[in-house]
Amino acid sequence: MSETIREMVLPGTYIEVRAEGLIGVSGIATGNVGAVGTASRGPLDTAVVLGSYAEAVEIFGSYDRWDPEADTPSLTLTRTLEQVFKGGASTVYAVRVANIAEGEEMAATAWTVRAVTPEGTEGPEVFRLAATTPGTWANDILRTEPATPGGRPATVKLRVGRVEETLPAATVGELLDAAAASRFVRVEAIASHPTTEERGRAVHAVTRTEEGGPNGASITGTEVAAGLDLLASEAVHILTIGGLAADEITDEVLAHLEATENDGRERIAVIGTSSDVLNTVRTEASRVGNPRVVLVAPGIVADDAASPGPDRAVGLTPPYAAALVAGRLSTLAPHISLTNKDVAAGGLTRRYTRSEQKQLLDNRVLVLQENLGFRVLKGITTDNGPFKQISVRRIVDYAKAGVRLGSNPYIGRLNNSRVRAALKATLDGFLSGMVLDEMLQSYELDVSATRRQEIDGQAIVTLTLRPTFSIDFIKVIMNLE
């Protein structure tokens, strides 16, 4: 429908429809989770969107056996994603990071393929195979099976977990064509090879020439900060850090939260303590006081798929409990409190007494308890102010996101009283919906601009919100230009 009528052919009454009266606020996502951690497989320093745990395993590989006493830290990303999806998350942005020493490089496993000469001896190198991503995951995935007198052709088999690829390898050309379509390896050409003649020759050997790795599992806050930077521009609302405790990554997480809030991409970080010992938890809680940080204790009991034997239950540290809580939080609408919500834990590494629970709540720690299953005792952030409850912080973030979304179509239009009134009507409709959904008890809204601001293309949106579960009135001032 056109906004202006260029030609009036017939006399009578004409109605001009202005687009400002048709603008509304569409759906707002609130439950996307971002995770940063280490893995043996998958693209490095890239945000990958996942929709299931099976997809996470396919891309980042299985985690290693849980051994907190090992010299090398366990890989964290896949185990963290297991807990996030177990909590109920449906969309996760995962980033694989690694700690590689300066001047070193994380290698991908590589193999050399050689052809048979006409005399039946070892011939030249005709092409190479390399694992699709760097890391140790592919070091032992390949084995060759020569042709048998009974007529079975030669093959190259690639096995990753329970998935196996069989590549025919009767000739160099056959193996080359099959490898080009593989999910696990890629072909690296060698100049002038293979020739037409070499493509028809038999494969002499496929030999591993380079081991993949290292995995760079010993990450620090530097690598975490780099991973968080990759999530800064993504539609992430809840963050969790694989395996690292609050005392290791608090500064980096707080810097990221402040930067994304200033950029209009608000989010909440759910992190764990380094231990479930009461004094340690209280000490670490005293160092964090932010409405966007949730601190979780104690750790959880979960099955370790990499452990041999029938008894696979292990006690995971609080950062993995934080991942489970992050996944559970992602399933809830912004105004639904996390308090007393069940979590899919197999057990807790420590059961705090009522007195200890009270101390932790007073120190703004989100405590897991056993009560008709395993539940969140109280859904709180580490802040003591009006955003102490997670739901209040999420409600305000939801309102801000809706105002930005509703205001965006007006940017670039006339900045006069008529258009500002239309903007106010759009935002009124959105905020009234929040009241009907019981996210807000009430609100006040004003859209204004001075004559100078009109000339400069600026409008001021002032919100006074009263979220559900809060006695505080929260004022939000947004400058649109």
Protein traits:
481 residues, Rossmann fold, Dihydrodipicolinate Reductase, domain 2, eight-stranded mixed sheet, four-stranded antiparallel sheet, 21 strands, 28% helix
Write the layout of secondary structure elements.
Layout: E1 33-37, E2 47-50, H1 53-60, H2 77-87, E3 92-96, E4 110-116, E5 122-131, E6 142-145, E7 155-160, E8 163-168, H3 172-179, E9 185-189, H4 196-199, E10 203-210, H5 221-231, E11 238-241, H6 246-262, E12 268-272, H7 278-286, E13 293-297, E14 300-303, E15 313-316, H8 318-330, E16 347-348, H9 354-362, E17 366-370, E18 374-376, H10 390-407, H11 417-436, E19 440-448, H12 451-456, E20 459-467, E21 474-480
Parallel strand pairs: 1-3, 1-11, 11-12, 12-13, 13-17
Antiparallel strand pairs: 2-3, 4-5, 4-10, 5-9, 6-7, 7-8, 14-15, 14-16, 17-18, 19-20, 20-21
Helix pairs in contact: 1-2, 2-8, 5-6, 10-11
Q: How would you explain this protein's 3D organization?
A:
This protein is α+β, with helices and mostly antiparallel strands. It folds into three domains: about 35-100 and about 215-385, 3-Layer(aba) Sandwich (Rossmann fold), CATH 3.40.50.11780; about 110-210; about 405-480, Dihydrodipicolinate Reductase, domain 2 (2-Layer Sandwich), CATH 3.30.360.90. About 30% of the residues lie in helices and about 25% in strands. The chain has twelve helices and 21 strands. The protein has helices spanning about 55-60, 75-85, 170-180, 195-200, 220-230, 245-260, 280-285, 320-330, 355-360, 390-405, 415-435, 450-455, and strands at about 35, 45-50, 90-95, 110-115, 120-130, 140-145, 155-160, 165-170, 185-190, 205-210, 240, 270, 295, 300-305, 315, 345-350, 365-370, 375, 440-450, 460-465, 475-480. The protein has an eight-stranded mixed β-sheet with strand order 2-3-1-11-12-13-17-18, sandwiched between helices. It has a four-stranded antiparallel β-sheet with strand order 9-5-4-10, covered by helices on one side. The chain has a three-stranded antiparallel β-sheet with strand order 6-7-8. A hairpin with a 3-residue loop joins strand 17 and strand 18. Helix 1 (about 55-60) runs antiparallel to helix 2 and helix 2 crosses helix 8 (about 320-330). The protein is globular and about 90 Å long. The mean pLDDT is about 90.
